[in-house]
Write a structure and sequence with these properties.
The complex is a heterodimer.
Chain A: H1 7-20, H2 23-39
Chain B: H1 3-9, E1 17-21, H2 26-38, E2 41-44, H3 51-55, E3 60-64, E4 73-77, H4 86-91, E5 94-98, E6 101-105, H5 108-114, H6 122-135, H7 143-152, H8 156-165, H9 167-171, H10 178-185, H11 188-229
Helix pairs in contact in B: 8-10, 8-11, 10-11
Classes of the chains: A mainly alpha, B alpha+beta.
């Protein structure tokens, strides 16, 4: 019988760790990510989904981020 | 039924909208209206919230204005292409509790079907969701789990491995799914090619499904603009 394929071999350590979590653990980790995102000033307004059948370019509008006011860019690197 | 369900089942999506599937009857729509009002949510785009639009497969889009959820977009649907009726989806749902609140989600097989869209971003998600199911498989899997994997696995290496492990079960799916037949032959390039063909076909079916609905949306947009101009 050939050797089983491990998640690490197939998708790498990071994803394998994510797969090994219970659904509840993944949900909680995702909520932590949300907290960080919002703390950094992330907006809840989603990015335009141009491949969606619902996408209407006239409807989409960029909106300013509205995260916590204590976050600001002190130095920005070049592109 | 969207990003957070994907996270729960093993993929990772940082989705900033909330996708809800509702039964399009009067009682549910009244409850939805009350919920949207509490979030100070307005409908954006077309159509407006109407059971007839939802029953035909349209989505209704909201944007919240309440300060703690400001700009959050909520998409509401009642019918998903290729999926069973709401009642059937509801009977198979997964329920979780988060901070004392019960949340109902599509079952994993139903989520995978719902993700078979024309959008690029949904296909890696399906692959991750089913990979996670593969790696969670018990040593002696039941028939339902094997059926799900043989019908939905999109990782060539794993599909070949599964076909090697369970060749009799794999035989059952060779007629309904070409990648399974290729997996039994063991050629990874041919399995990959068959999966690509399968994906392209599903995307085409999704585009065809949405074509008349998009025309209807376009007409509603024009009608709204004309109404606003008058």
């Amino acid at each position: 019988m050939d050797q089983p394929i491990t998640a690490e071999e197939l998708v790498g350590e990071e994803w394998a760790e994510w797969y090994r979590m219970t659904p509840q653990e993944r949900f909680l980790e995702s909520m932590k990510l949300w907290d960080t995102y919002l703390a950094l000033g992330g907006s809840l307004d989603p990015e335009p989904d141009t491949q969606s059948p619902f996408f209407d370019p006239d409807e989409w509008r960029a909106s300013a981020s509205h995260g916590r006011p204590g976050v600001r860019v002190l130095r920005r690197g070049g592109v | 039924m969207g990003g957070q369900a994907c996270v729960f089942y093993g993929a990772a999506e940082f989705s900033r909208d909330l996708d809800l599937l509702v039964l399009a009857d009067a009682s549910s729509l009244n409850a939805l209206r009350a919920a949207m009002a509490s979030l100070d949510a307005e409908t954006i785009a077309v159509p407006h919230l109407d059971g007839q639009f939802l029953q035909r497969g349209h989505a209704v889009h909201f944007r919240c204005r309440r300060e703690d959820v400001k700009a959050l977009r909520i998409d509401v649907m009642s019918k998903l292409r290729g999926s069973n009726t709401f009642v059937q989806l509801w009977s198979r749902r997964t329920t979780i509790e988060v901070e004392g609140i019960e949340i109902d989600m599509l079952s994993l097989p139903d989520l995978v079907v719902a993700k078979k869209t024309q959008r690029d971003k949904d296909w890696p998600m399906i692959r991750r969701l089913v990979e996670q199911a593969y790696f969670s498989l018990p040593r002696v899997p039941d028939e339902n789990s094997l059926e799900f994997l043989f019908l939905e696995l999109r990782t060539p290496e794993l599909l070949i491995r599964l076909a090697n492990q369970f060749p009799d079960a794999a035989q059952l799916y060779t007629l309904s799914r070409v990648p399974v037949a290729r997996a039994l032959e063991g050629n990874i390039e041919e399995v990959s090619a068959a999966l690509s063909v399968e994906e392209a076909a599903e995307r085409g079916i999704d585009r065809a499904y949405w074509k008349p609905l998009k025309l209807e949306i376009e007409q509603l947009r024009r009608s709204r603009v004309k109404h606003e101009d008058e």
